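If you are new to this repository, start here. Below is one unmodified record pulled from the training split, so you can see the exact layout before writing a loader.
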Amino acid sequence: LFRSARLCRALVLGLLLTVAGSLRALNLPPAEVLQVKFVSLQDQLDHNTFQHPLHLESTEAADELKGDIYAVMTQPFETVRQATQKIENWCDILILHLNVKGCHTVVTPTTQFLNVNIGKKHDEPLDKTFPVNFVYRVVATNPGYLRIQLRAETGPLGTSNYQITFEAVPLADGRSFI
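And here is the target side for that same chain:
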């Protein structure tokens, strides 16, 4: 009936997603969840307006905004893992966004912080920006999975509960899925 194992897997995974509501509900290991997500996003990664293997998902509720970005990186997983699990590299990663006006790290014996200044799209002095102080934590790191979490309880203009979760897994062809 099915001409390819990949199509069959995609249909089964689609059914599981429909029935279970989410892969996390199936209690799969996080690395496997991300690998399954990669398979389920093949068409979106291959065909999109970005003309790169990139897919965005976003939701908005009355009191919450959420966005997920999925991408394939040409770098091997080990390169991605080594670069992203060092807090000092995160200012370079986040500074790519035009609203990030400043960034520095603070490391104490018990906690690592990523202090980010967020502002408007145009140039402005740091004292006119809003500080967001993220607690940086490497949640999991092994040869097959990486999870880093950045959390800030408060943000600008009375906002709260900021969370950035970065996950990565190796792909069979030497690339990485994040």
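Two things worth knowing about this chain: The two ends are 33 Å apart (CA to CA). Confidence is low (pLDDT under 50) at residues 1-21.
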